[in-house]
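Morning, I've got a small favour to ask if you have a moment. I owe you a coffee for this, so here goes:

…
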Amino acid sequence: MGWMNMGYMALMFVVCACFVSSFVFHFSLPGVPTYLKNEEDLGNSIVKTVSRAAPAPANVSLGDLQGRPLFVFGDSTVDAGNFNITKLPYGVDYHTLGPRFSNGLTIADYLALKIQTAIPQAFNSMGKEELKKNVNVNFASAGCGLLAKTHPMGPIPCTSFGDQVMQFLTSTSKNERSVFFISVGANDYVFSFDRKNSTQFAEEVLSKLEIYLKVLYSFGGARIFIVNNLAPVGCIPDKRNSTTNRCDEVLNKGVNAFNRHLEQTLWNFKKERNAAVFLADSHLMYAQIRNDPTEFGFTEIYKPCCGIWNANLRMFACGENTTYCHPRTGLLFFDGAHTTDQANNLFVKRCFAGRLCYPIRAPTV
């Protein structure tokens, strides 16, 4: 799903027997009082500790991010191989770093290249000493989301967003110059969405994001955030009607509610803190490509490059023995849920050209 923040996975073609550690809040974290037992306690404590946080550099712009450390959190849109789930043909056009959920690089990889910093390595691939020395780490985990209950079907390991934050707090060195890139939320709509009440569900999901933004700010020294919104998840190949090719508009309605509330959540967080917060507008990017694919270099925006429709799973299954397209130029989707290297690269270019990413501002009524 690349820049589209649609962290959905090809579930039947991944096998891993890794153990997922659960950090939650009963662990003793640096700077976090040990008496905090749950998110409510943590949130209350954050309110009291915000004023003690060190100030951020003033008026940071996207152009000021060159050479800064980069930490990445989220789902398969930015996963760098934390559980080694993907195999070829994933990564077929870029072998050096190992397969991502694309034919090449993710938006997080291209973000690192754009700001001229090292591409963050997967957290699970690094030892304790390496984590202390390495300032660029990727905690993203395919399949999970903001809600603890969000998890793919089957014995597939993943780390929730909250646990990713805990991994950061307990293992890495802190640097207030760092950029924190977050691309998460789509899996909550794929696996946990309450189709009856989109507003209430969006508020529930974003309440978790708000808590963990405060955690990163108060206890992790985070001052610069880039947060990706959600593209219309109901329009990915896996979710389109196989007969009419129409999008799942109920799902898209939920995503729209999420994006509206995301802007308010980020603004509320920003206005009370000395932080730079940027919104990356994946939803706008998809709308622009759909309206005029050829303008952006795409000739196919509906069909995936890799994947055979599985009616039982209701998804395009892309595995090691699956035939995939060649060449891949001009395609928006690599599999039934994830965008191609071409799309991911384009997203970051347009982001830094000021066409998709901008400092968060007060939402209009």
Q: What stands out?
A: The longest strand covers residues 70-74. The longest helix spans residues 198-220.
